[in-house]
Write a structure and sequence with these properties.
Layout: H1 2-20, E1 37-41, H2 48-56, E2 61-63, H3 71-76, E3 80-83, H4 90-93, H5 96-109, E4 115-124, H6 129-142, E5 148-152, H7 168-179, E6 184-187, H8 200-214, E7 218-223, H9 235-247, E8 252-256, H10 278-297, E9 301-308, E10 324-328, E11 332-338, E12 344-350, E13 357-363, E14 371-374, E15 379-382, E16 386-387, E17 392-398, E18 403-408
Parallel strand pairs: 1-2, 1-8, 2-3, 3-4, 4-5, 5-6, 6-7, 7-8
Antiparallel strand pairs: 9-11, 10-13, 11-12, 12-18, 13-17, 14-15, 14-18, 16-17
Length: 412
């Protein structure tokens, strides 16, 4: 059954990509991010000390639970808001007076420097697409400079009310066709008990393919908190979530459940009484890395993503005759990128969230001048390489779940 479903999804994606070929990148090119997004969900109270904690942890934005009244506070602390309380929903559009009030609100705040965009929902079901599309179009008319942020369900969501069918590709395609979003965002939380989610990389692959086809940035929501029924997160597993997303070309991340609890066994990054948990320190360190790596990756194009070692569901094995001929020393995700000058980049992530590894890469060209980006300094550093007529070999250590950005010279 799974094989038939996968085949149907592949056909659906192939048809979608074929329809996209040669088509102008109309509204998808309308908005592109200027900075790598590092947002939190589960907003803290609108008090200076709480916003200061978020800024010190390296977040760039606060999403969902904050209204326009928090814009001034956010700006004071160098943060931006993905505003979630704007008094706008499908029902509002049906009422002329309410619609005009909503339009006035958008016009009032659209020039505020702390505004990132508008949060319209998470774990969105197919039956909500039409209503969300109407709201997104309304926002686009009155504030085309700021995107609507809509977070989708993962590919392992419960089939039925959630996806309406077992074709995740059809779910994504219908969302893109109906809503015409500026950002492709989704949630997927692995590390479930008694086994890890087998579809984590499959989800990344689906979203990446659709994002590349439409020229859209994509942003995953990552689990920064502890939930009942899910394994306790470690620093390595949190870094693994962030860095594997970078390997697939993510243009930002959202950490979920920052503040308080939800009454369902959730332990957040910051408790309801303001206590900074150990996860706060971990996420702050990872965010510092993301600020440097994200700035470098933001203008790059995702070319391909491969896996070395055992290949997870939905992923692609490292090809024998590709740019990277081998990646030894562990299990790795190898993302390939390019810039406008045709320089090539690799983002190599350790796929083990528990153990460190030493990656040994064989690059199938006699590359000289290979460099890596040091997240602690923001500087490109030369890499020692063994180079002969046919190839270059580099080795480097990776912590549990860690990735490294490597720059290769432009192809001759």
């Amino acid at each position: 059954m799974r094989t038939r479903v996968a085949a149907a999804c592949t056909l659906c994606l192939a048809a979608f990509l074929a329809a996209s070929c040669g088509r102008p990148r109309r509204e998808a090119a309308r908005w592109q991010p200027r900075e790598f997004l590092i947002a939190l969900r589960g907003a803290p109270p609108q008090q200076p000390e709480h916003y200061a904690h978020a800024a010190r942890a390296g977040f760039t934005a606060i999403a969902d639970d904050a209204g326009p009244d928090a814009l001034a506070l956010a700006r004071r602390h160098g943060l931006r808001l993905i505003v979630g309380r704007i008094g706008l929903d499908p029902e509002t559009l049906a009422d002329g007076a309410a619609r005009e009030r909503a339009a006035a609100t958008l016009r009032r705040f659209r020039s505020h420097p702390a505004l990132w965009g508008y949060f319209l929902g998470a774990d969105v079901q197919q039956k909500q697409f039409e209503g969300i599309a109407a709201v997104a179009a309304f926002i686009r008319r009155h504030d085309p400079a700021h995107p609507a942020f809509i977070s989708l369900l993962p590919c392992d969501a419960w089939v039925g009310p959630a996806l309406e069918n077992a074709h995740y590709a059809a779910y994504l395609e219908r969302f893109l066709r109906t809503v015409r979003p500026d950002v492709l965002a989704y949630s997927h939380f692995p590390f479930r008990e008694p086994r890890d989610s087998a579809q984590y990389f499959e989800n990344l692959e689906w979203v990446r393919r659709f994002a590349v086809a439409q020229g859209l940035p994509f942003v995953p929501t990552l689990r920064g908190s502890q939930w009942e029924g899910m394994r306790e997160p470690s620093e390595g597993s949190l870094r693994w979530l962030a860095h594997t997303s970078l390997a697939y070309g993510a243009k930002g991340v959202v950490w979920v459940r920052y503040w308080g609890g939800d009454g369902n066994g959730s332990e957040p990054i910051v408790t309801a009484d303001g206590l900074l948990t150990e996860r706060y320190r971990w996420v702050a360190g990872i965010n510092a890395e993301l600020r440097v790596l994200g700035r470098a990756l933001l203008p790059l194009r995702s070319v391909a993503v491969y896996h070395a070692g055992a290949v997870p569901s939905g992923a692609t094995r490292l090809p024998v005759h590709g740019l990277v001929g081998a990646a030894e020393g562990g299990a790795f995700v190898v993302g390939q990128f390019a810039d406008d000058e045709q320089a090539r980049y690799l983002f190599v992530a350790n796929r083990d969230p528990r153990k460190a590894a030493v990656a040994k890469l064989t690059i199938t060209e006699p590359c000289r001048g290979i460099a890596w980006l040091d997240p602690s300094t923001g500087r490109w550093c030369p890499m020692a390489a063994v180079v002969d007529r046919f190839q270059a070999i580099v080795e480097f250590p990776l912590r549990a779940g860690e990735g490294r950005l490597v720059r290769l010279p432009a192809a001759r």
